[in-house]
Specification:
Largest sheet: none
Oligomer: single chain
Shape: elongated
Structural class: mainly alpha
Order of helices and strands: HHHHHH
Helix content: over 70%
Number of strands: 0
Distance between the termini: 55 Å
Length: 104
């Protein structure tokens, strides 16, 4: 029984450290600007649809988050990926130019 308690204690400490690291990374802080529930919902809906290869639907959610690219690099790449795969090449070109002008 003492071994079981020791194992539980170690597991608890490891989980605490992992959760602490996940919530203290810059990616979680980057969404502070968009802390309203609908914005967070749009972000995760867009990412989930992107992973399911539903690019047009993903684009519709991600385009609502204009300005997030300044503080969240992953958003820029996901948004650009959804633009290109949904056939919005012209918009993708302008988005890349916007990122270049902002030196991102």
């Amino acid at each position: 029984m003492p071994t079981y308690r020791k194992l539980n204690k170690i597991t608890g400490h490891i989980l605490f450290v992992i959760i602490f690291i996940l919530f203290s990374t810059s990616n979680s802080k980057a969404i502070d600007k968009f802390e309203k529930a609908d914005k967070i919902s749009d972000y995760f809906s867009g990412i989930l649809l992107l992973n399911k290869n539903k690019y047009s639907e993903s684009f519709n959610f991600l385009k609502k988050l204009d300005g997030l690219e300044k503080s969240h690099f992953a958003y820029s790449s996901k948004y650009l990926y959804s633009l290109v795969n949904s056939g919005n090449i012209t918009q993708a070109f302008y988005f890349v130019k916007k990122l270049e002008n902002e030196k991102q």
